[in-house]
Amino acid sequence: MHAIINDWSSAPIPDADKALCKYAEKLTLQQHEIGDADLDVLRSHGFDDRAIHDATQVISYFNYITRIADALDVEPESFIQPWGEKRKKALEKT
To answer: Across all residues in the chain, what is the average pLDDT?
Structure first.
């Protein structure tokens, strides 16, 4: 689990999971660039349209709720460790 949080791209997970993580990252950080090719990659890994729809709903919900919390300056729970910052900073450098 920690390997996925730290860097999903090098985590020991199946290629289908990596494809889904890549899609989630792109939907989160570059949503205007999502296109048919991205969906075709997921399909090539065995995701049907229903699974892609469901994944998109879940990813989008988390993006939505995070933006709401940020906009309203909701304090994170003290027991929850922040994650993803290392990956986000690495992406910003590219």
So the answer is: 88
